[in-house]
Sequence to fold (250 residues):
Amino acid sequence: MVDSVKLPRVPTGIEGFDELCGGGVIRNRTYLVTGASGAGKTIFTLQYLYNGATKFGENGILLATEERPTSIRENALTFGWDLKKLEDENKLAIIDASSTKIGVPSLERFIDIRPFDIDQIIDQIIAIQEEIGAVRAVIDSSTSIAYNIPDIAKARIELLKLSTTLEVLEMTSLMTAEIIHGMDARGFGIESFLTEGTIALYNRRTDNVRLHSLEIYKMRGTPHSNKVHPFDITDHGLVVHPHEEVYGEF
Fold:
């Protein structure tokens, strides 16, 4: 495939990853980051937001549907990422969409008071974008949203509304989705049909060792690696090895 039209790129800043897809993801599109529990999805997306705010001057929004913001901030600090500092500087906003869901009070500035009401979420995102000028967004996770909408057709429409709105707002976004081990690799769930690309993360056990790896399962509009590449989770986040390959079934 010839990349004849040079579409604008958004670098993730994740060491080794951008090399796999021509310098980064395409601007103003939504991508799915998928994998089983423990594969590194949240770390990948937080690193994307943190790098955006600290390295590229691109503010971001995190919609947290599964983990409370206090835990997210604490975990991020283990990688040296001070999210609270970014929030205080209006470079990052975290929407707490988990506390109300489980019925506990929240002191967060931004709260989803009607759990998984897509229209309210969109209204909040629009208001926050106007306030801080956000151009990056992360939905962690879309699985929680889909599970709370029993009708699969409606869930697809609601997620499509959300991803399309993010693109109309000229935000480059990542959605996480959890994949259960053994699920047919041809189907990453309804989210895969609503996004412009799928980045699959793996945490495969070989003998008594687990190996982290990733592949760009699809990415429309750009050449990209079709191989599975190993990555490490270091003290500073993910480090992808673009010149190494992993073989075997995933």
Observations:
- The CA atoms of residues 201 and 234 lie 16 Å apart.
- Confidence is low (pLDDT under 50) at residues 181-188.
- The domain at 34-200 is CATH 3.40.50.300 (Rossmann fold).
